[in-house]
Amino acid sequence: MNILDTTHDTQLRSWVDSANVADCDFPIQNLPFGRFRPADTEEPFRIGVAIGDQVLDLDAAKLVDHADMNRLMAATPEERAALRKALSEGLAEGSTKKGDWELALYAQSSVELTVPCRIHDYTDFYTGIHHATTVGKLFRPDQPLMPNYKWVPIGYHGRASSIGVSGQVFKRPKGQTRAPDAVEPSFGPSKRLDYELELGFLIGRGNALGEPIVIGDAERHLFGVTLLNDWSARDLQAWEYQPLGPFLAKNFATTLSPWIVTMEALAPFRAKFERPATDPQPMAYLDDASNRAAGALDITLEVWLQTAQMRDAGAPAVRLTRGNTTQAAYWTAAQLVTHHTVNGCNLQPGDLLGSGTLSGPTPEQAGSLLELTQGGKQPITLPNGERRTFLEDGDTLTLRGYCERAGATRIGLGEVSGTVVAPRG
């Protein structure tokens, strides 16, 4: 489990002035990684670290000699900690690196960001128990949760090729659906397009095929966390998901934040992992004293919506919901890693594990429109009078996340946004 050190000192300030602004997502205590290049160029993407409203080029700062994020992610936790310390010391007020590193800074407004690493494989889990319960009630009032839910981390293999970075614009998906009163399905654009508020956990060091990662070592294989929106076509999903799970309802787009907040940066925001006494406790291979003591993450998550009409009128996005991961996730990231590999499955640097929709226990903490509108039965009314049950063409949906706690410096996960447009044809 990550420990607190000098890089988390709340008194630390940076010579990059924008990193010292109150409520900044990227103060010197954060230092998230991403890939960037100067905007409007064909230069190769290189590794950068966000500091305030700037990006530090790690190659130009002579901190790495390559542009391979996955190679950096495969480093040992000790090597990563040493890099974090070097970054912290070099960006701190009074650092002798200032003169050289100022030449390695780019304004975030002047760069193009991309998916933060090469994602070989993508597995989406279903850790949000309130989401699972609320959705289950819509379709199975007598049995909202399936019998296995509280025993095993449920997941399915997603599609890595359609993962995009924040700012992604995608066409409304088409597929088969069947109306409740119809005998046969029909084909056409999805009418019940939804978002899913998730975290993405990115693997650092992998494991050999046939060699499971035990729960006590799982944290050493996690590189960091990013925001994730697992767009979902609910009407396609309802028709196709039995018996083998989601397919076309999910594989048309998934959107990530460009920044990976490292597990080291999240050390001040760990929380106890606790189950209600009446619930089954994790099986032995998923249980560990350190995981119980601090396996959970304390992250506030928000959902914002801006419609095309709002954008045309110059109106800002409106917040739909706000919740916290400590109230949402039934399994920890370490448990997901351990369960994923318990059968010998090999993970690789850059593999992505989605948390599943992280909804809280109340409607204002919902992580999807499916929950917020009770399956489309209770439309929400926006400040400009527009109504929504599901997303319409031109809608831009944005997820934001941040951590704040007494005795620690607030850090952010940035944001991830995506816009749906009309389907082709």
Summarize the structure.
The chain is α+β, with helices and mostly antiparallel strands and 425 residues long.
Task: Write structural notes for this entry.
- The protein is an alpha+beta fold and 425 residues long.
- Helix content is 16%, strand content 27%.
- Strands 6, 7, 8, 13, 14, 16, 17 and 22 form an 8-stranded mixed sheet that branches. It has a 5-stranded antiparallel sheet with strand order 4-3-2-1-5, with no helix packed on it.
- The longest helix has 15 residues, at 77-91.
- The N and C termini lie far apart (51 Å).
Kindly identify the CATH topology of the largest domain.
Fumarylacetoacetate hydrolase, domain 2
Average per-residue pLDDT, rounded, comes to 96
Counting structural domains, the number is 2
Number of helices: 9
Strand content: 25-35%
Proportion of residues in helical segments: 10-25%
Shape, principal axes of CA atoms:
globular
Distance between the termini: 51 Å
Q: What is the CATH homology-level superfamily of the largest domain?
A: Fumarylacetoacetase-like, C-terminal domain
Gyration radius from CA atoms, angstroms: 21 Å
Helices and strands, with pairings:
Elements (H helix, E strand, L loop, with lengths): L32 E6 L7 E6 L2 E4 L11 H5 L3 H15 L6 H4 L3 E3 L3 E4 L7 E4 L3 H11 L15 E3 L5 E3 L2 E4 L2 E4 L8 E4 L3 E2 L2 E7 L18 E8 L2 E2 H7 L13 E3 L4 E2 L7 E2 L17 H6 L1 E2 L2 E7 L1 H5 L5 E7 L8 H9 L10 E3 L14 H4 L7 E2 L5 E2 L7 E8 L7 E11 L4
